[in-house]
Design brief:
Helix content: 25-40%
CATH superfamily of the largest domain: FAD/NAD(P)-binding domain
Low-confidence stretches: none
Number of domains: 2
Shape: globular
Strand content: 15-25%
Radius of gyration: 23 Å
Bound molecules: NADP nicotinamide-adenine-dinucleotide phosphate
Largest sheet: 6 strands, mixed
Mean pLDDT: 94
Oligomer: single chain
CATH topology of the largest domain: FAD/NAD(P)-binding domain
Strand order of the largest sheet: 3-2-1-4-17-16
Number of strands: 17
Distance between the termini: 53 Å
Length: 447
């Protein structure tokens, strides 16, 4: 009870309006109903990876934004978009206005591939490529060439599968997605024959979930293939019963892919295992990826010395993400998470989500993070008479910053819904200036 009183009237800012930010806001609002919570986002639009990371053809997953809208509309929560902390406003400035600041800005950059040739044109990281087809303003100009032959997708996680699936779908299959219009147009005329998805470990170690694999067996114009010689008969006894059950479901999918007729569809999606990339080949643009065969020894991946190449005109690597260094706070050296003591970075400074845990887990994992950090903040931080949003807003005015509120977002959303092509839920704006024009009630058409 004493703690509740001390927390009464707390001013808390949350940096990042993706799942981690929303769940932290919800938990804080529930734990401290008379707190003032400001949820700050770099883009004019909320929802982070729900809008720009979750695959555009996974609309059921995206429906979580209805929950986030309910959170944004709570009395003591204010959404503030189009403000970059670490750019427009420094983290130190923000901390002067608020009793507590929670960093929920995720891991928006690609982990580097780090092999010769990885800087050739048509080699993209997943953050860039997924951002491009999801209409993230930072990547709208990416302009990848999808004009022939093979694509190599490196990585054996669900992001790699999302990318391979989007590249493998026909325009009809994407019609009821919210893929960016520029990406739909480009994919409609793409001339891709083979999408290779390559993992450095085996099928048993792959991080795919079964539902994602099963979807690949149902594509209209692409056949999913695996090589029976790369698949074990069964899952070894070294795994727990639960893991064996899960891995066995994946193995069943791969076995079905190994039986499929490679000529049954126009395009092929080929799983290839135990191969690590060693070089991207090409002069002016990518022509192939050179791989070394591997074996898994315990936790380690060892090269066998056997080399092979996969010809391709596009490479996308989905091998994990890293945080942006913008905030000027110390990242843990080895795995690029922010150093924290169970979420506490410094007095009054906290972290949640991928920035705390690294880029893993489901959307719902962030709810647990949010609840933990809310408890910690209520226990540790006292209200100290800081201005909260009123002080921040004065700074915005001094700097002529155009920030967006939740009504602005709803105006952007309404314009996107109104502009949607038949069957699609929305047609996204991909430029910030176009989004802001809608907020000023000046008509604009999504690109
Ligand atoms: P992930 O699941 O960690 O997979 C990363 C993959 O990259 C692994 O196969 C990893 O291999 C490989 N890798 C890492 N470094 C590499 C290198 N230098 N060379 C070659 N391969 C390398 O990460 P993610 O796919 O980015 O997904 C992030 C999180 O989002 C995960 O929790 C994922 O489940 C979640 N997610 C879920 C969905 C969904 O539920 N539909 C969709 C998208 C994302 P090793 O195993 O050998 O390290």
């Amino acid at each position: 009870m004493l703690q509740q009183n001390a927390a009464s009237g707390l001013k808390i800012a949350i940096v990042g309006a993706g799942p981690a930010g929303f769940y932290a806001a919800e938990a804080l609002a529930a734990a401290c109903p008379d707190c003032e919570i400001t949820l700050i986002e770099r883009l004019p639009t909320p929802y982070g990876l729900i809008r720009s990371g979750v695959a555009p053809d996974h609309q059921t997953t995206k429906s979580i934004q209805n929950t986030f809208e309910r959170i944004a509309r709570l009395d003591n929560i204010r959404f503030v978009g189009n403000v970059e902390i670490g750019g427009d406003v420094s983290l130190d400035e923000l901390r002067r206005f608020y009793d507590g600041v929670v960093l929920a800005c995720g891991a928006p950059l690609d982990a580097p591939l780090g092999i010769p040739g990885d800087n050739l044109p048509e080699v993209y990281g997943a953050a860039q490529f997924v951002g491009w087809y999801n209409g993230h303003p930072d990547f709208a100009e990416l302009n990848p060439r999808l004009d022939g032959g093979g694509v190599v997708v490196i990585g054996n996680g669900n992001v790699a599968i999302d990318i391979a699936r989007v590249l493998s779908k026909s325009p009809d299959e994407l019609a009821n997605s919210d893929i960016a219009h520029h990406a739909l147009q480009r994919l409609s005329v793409a001339d891709l024959s083979d999408v290779h998805i390559v993992g450095r470990r085996g099928p048993v170690e792959a991080k795919f979930t079964t539902a994602e694999l099963q979807e690949l067996g149902e594509l209209q114009t692409t056949v999913a293939l695996a090589d029976a010689a790369e698949l074990p008969e069964t899952i070894g006894e070294e795994f727990s019963l639960r893991d064996r059950r899960l891995k066995n479901k994946n193995l069943e999918c791969f076995k079905a892919f190994a039986q499929a007729d490679s000529m049954s569809r126009a395009r092929r999606l080929r799983f290839q295992f135990n191969a690590r990339p060693v070089q991207v080949l090409g002069d002016d643009r990518v022509e192939a990826v050179r791989f070394e065969r591997t074996r898994v020894v315990g936790e380690a991946v060892e090269g066998t010395g056997e080399i092979f190449e996969i010809p391709c005109s596009l490479v996308v690597y989905a091998i994990g993400y890293r945080p942006s260094p913008m905030l000027g706070v110390n990242l843990r050296g080895t795995d690029n998470r922010l150093q924290s003591d169970a979420g506490r970075v410094a007095p009054g400074l906290y972290v949640v989500g991928w920035l705390k845990r690294g880029p893993s887990g489901k959307i719902g994992t962030n709810r647990i993070d949010g609840e933990e950090i809310a408890k910690k903040i209520i226990a540790e931080v006292d209200a100290s008479g800081r201005t909260g949003f009123s002080g921040l807003e004065k700074l915005f005015q001094e700097r002529s910053l155009r920030w967006t509120d939740f009504d602005d977002w709803k105006a952007i959303e309404a314009a996107e819904v109104a502009a949607a092509l038949m069957g699609a839920p929305r047609r996204k704006f991909v430029r910030v200036d176009h989004m802001l024009e809608v907020c000023r009630k000046i008509p604009a058409t999504p690109a």
